[in-house]
Every structure is written in C-alpha cells, then in structure tokens.
Amino acid sequence: MFFGWELNLDWSDRLASVNDKIEQDGFEMIGYLVMMMLFKGIFASLAGPVPSYDMQRVLSTRTPAEAAKMSGLTMLVLYAPRYLMVAGFAVLALVYLTPEFEAMGASIDFETVLPLAIDRFVPIGFQGLLLAGLLAAFMGTFAAFINAAPAYIVNDLYKKYVNPEASQKTYVRYSYVASLILVIIGIGAGFFAESINSLTLWITSALYGGYAAANVLKWIWWRFNGYGYFFGMLGGLLASTFIPRLMPEVIDIYLFPLILGISFAGCILGTLLTAPGEDEVLKAFYKGTRPWGFWKPVIRKIQAEDPSFVPNQDFKRDMFNVLVGIVWQMTLVVMPIYLLIRETQSLLIALTLFIITSYLLKKFWYDKLED
Question: What does residue 343 show for φ and ψ, rounded to 5 degrees?
Fold first, then answer.
C-alpha cells in the first residue's frame, strides 16, 4: 500500500522492463552523475560550508566539534526520508505512468512527472501536507540565500568601498533594498528559464565547477589571496555562463571539468600575479584554523616565534574520513531506493556498508573531535 494505492502484482515485471530501457539509454549519463556526486563530496569537504544555510547552521553552534556533529546529524536525519519519498514517487510513475509518457513521445515534459504522480496517487488531505512541506523546504533554502547575499553586497562592497562611515541603520536599509532587488531578479530570471531540469543541471554541474576551485584553494594554499579568489570566481562564473551557450549540444555535466579547469587557472594567475597576503594575517589565520595543505612557509614563521607550536598533522586521517564519509552518505541515498524497488541483495550490501562506515566514522572522526 502507498497512500491508499495498492501496487499490482506485476509491478516488479513492469519496473524491470523500464530498468532495462534505462540501462540501455542512460548508463553513460548515470555514470557521469555518480562521478559528479563523488567529486562534489570531495570538493565540498575540502572547501568547507558554503555561505548559505550550511554556513548559518555552522555559525549557530558553539564549538568546532558541535559544528561537525551538527553536519553529520543533518545528513543522517535528512537523507533517508528524502530519498524514500522521491524513490516512492519515481516507482509509482515508472510503473503506472510509463505508458502515458511513451504515448507522448518526444513531447513529454519530465517536469510534470512529480506533479502528475502526486495528483494521481496522493489523497487530497495528504496532498496539502506534502505541498506545504515542499514549499517550506524551498522557502528555507531561498531565505538562507536571501539572508546571505545582502551581507556580501552591503558589508563587502558598500561599507568597505562606498560609505564606510555610514550608520548601522543605513546598512540595514541597504540590506533590505539589496534583498528586494535580488528577489526581483530571481523571479524575473525564472520567467526566462527553459526548464527546471536545465537550471538544475547548470547549477549542480557547470556553476559548481565555476566556484569550487576558489573555495578549495582558500583553505589549502598559503599563497592564495583575495585577487586569486576574485579572478577564480570571475573566470568560473563567466565560463559557466557562456560555455554552455557556446556548446549547446554538450550536456552541462560533461562541461564540469573544463569549467573547473578555467576557474583553477583564474585562481592561480590572479594569485601569482599579485602580492601575497600580510604575514600577520596569514599567521593568525593558520593559528586559528590549522588547515592542512601547503602552509609550510607560514608554519616556519610561526615556529620561529613559538617553537612549541604544533601544526596540523591529521591530513591522512582527515582524507580517510572524507572518503569513508562519501561512501556513508551514498548508502543513505541508495538504501531507501533499494528498499522500495525490492532489491534485497543490494539493500543488504548497502546496509552492511552503512554499518561498517558508521563504525569507522565513530572511531576515526567522532571520537577524535576536539573543541
């Protein structure tokens, strides 16, 4: 039973035939998608929290250990229920709506699959609760970005370069104006978007390749400075904006390495062609965060002043935890999917991996956290 609807006895056969077709037509795309998820996990771990709801959750904690525990708990709580719901609607749509979609042929609009499945298989009362939950999730993400963006515009641009002596009320008013302008621009851009799918592909592949490099290098390379960050972000954003238009026949996922390479080139050129950061700033940053990476010149200067200072020596353990954490997160994604499509063997394998990786993270990550 699923929301009052009972699957026919032959649903497994129907789903198997659909799976065969997906394997024939989309195996290569799925492979690239999985690689994107792996690379995103690695780069996200290197880059740290982005300035959105992730950063706001981190800033709400009291210590680095609490921030790490919060991030792990968020994945554990959110992933399984999310993909349980998504996989449930996907199974219903594949089993019962595939004939209708095949009849549409090339005119099928894939963005109508989820609304159609909700309309067909969810009773009226549950529809309201489900849509309210989806809208709440959207507003939570949307509000986080709207809160973060004015801070950059007002604090980093207006306050620093235009009017540094203005009152706090002035900065607050300009924050309101900036938020309103961003909302209007976002709504206007939505009317010109071809589809939600195209936007999602662009954001998760092309655009992500445009800003990942700068956010990684800011932690692991002592020489990296503000100019490198600016030109890396600028090059990546320009590449992610224009390259998909210049190469419309290429799917955005395939453009990720090219855009990422352009962004890295902008970071490196912008850094090496300008002066490095001030020694006192670099030393204070390393003492406060102790990131691993290419920081030996800064470490030598700190140890010259304080021979007892111990740099970060946990690179191997941290990278091990990153790789284990990626596998752990992937099991949270696939377990509810395997459960719904009745792939018992695959479910048991994923469950076993989940237990093993949970133990490894408990021993080598959770137990090693320091405030």
Answer: -95, 80
DSSP letters spanning 194-237:
S-HHHHHHIIIIIIHHHHHHHHHHHHHBTT--HHHHHHHHHHHH
Mean pLDDT of the chain: 79
Highest mean pLDDT among 9-18, 120-129, 136-145, 358-367: 358-367
| 7-28: average pLDDT | 50
pLDDT of 2 reads 37
Residue 22, SS3?
A: helix
| Of 307, 274, 370, 334, nearest in space to 86 by CA | 334
Predicted local distance difference test score (pLDDT) of residue 224: 92
Q: Which two tokens stand for residue 130?
A: 């489900």
The residues, any chain, with a CB within 8 Å of residue 192's CB and separated by 6 or more, are none
Secondary structure (3-state) at 118: helix
pLDDT at residue 103 is higher than 90 = no
Q: Are 339 and 39 in contact (CB under 8 A)?
A: no
Among residues 294, 305, 310, the alpha carbon closest in space to that of 222 is found at: 294
Query: Which H/E stretch holds residue 294?
Result: none
Contact 121, 3 (CB under 8 A): yes
* Mean pLDDT confidence for 30-35: 62
Euclidean distance between CA atoms 178 and 170, whole angstroms: 12
Q: What is the pLDDT of residue 7?
A: 43
Output the pLDDT for position 255. Answer: 77
pLDDT (0 to 100) of residue 3: 37
> SS3 for 2?
strand
Q: Please report, in angstroms and rounded to a whole number, the separation of the first and last CA atoms in the chain.
A: 48
Asked if residue 56 lies in contact with residue 147, where contact means CB atoms within 8 angstroms, the answer is: yes
Residue count of the chain: 371
Torsion on CA atoms 116, 121, 126, 127, rounded to nearest 10: 10
Alpha helical stretches, state H, the chain: 11-47, 53-59, 64-92, 98-104, 113-121, 124-151, 168-192, 196-201, 208-220, 226-246, 252-272, 279-289, 296-305, 315-340, 344-364
| Closest-CA residue to 369 (of 68, 73, 70) | 68
Residue 25 has pLDDT above 50, yes or no: no
CA dihedral 45, 51, 53, 59 (to 10 degrees): 90
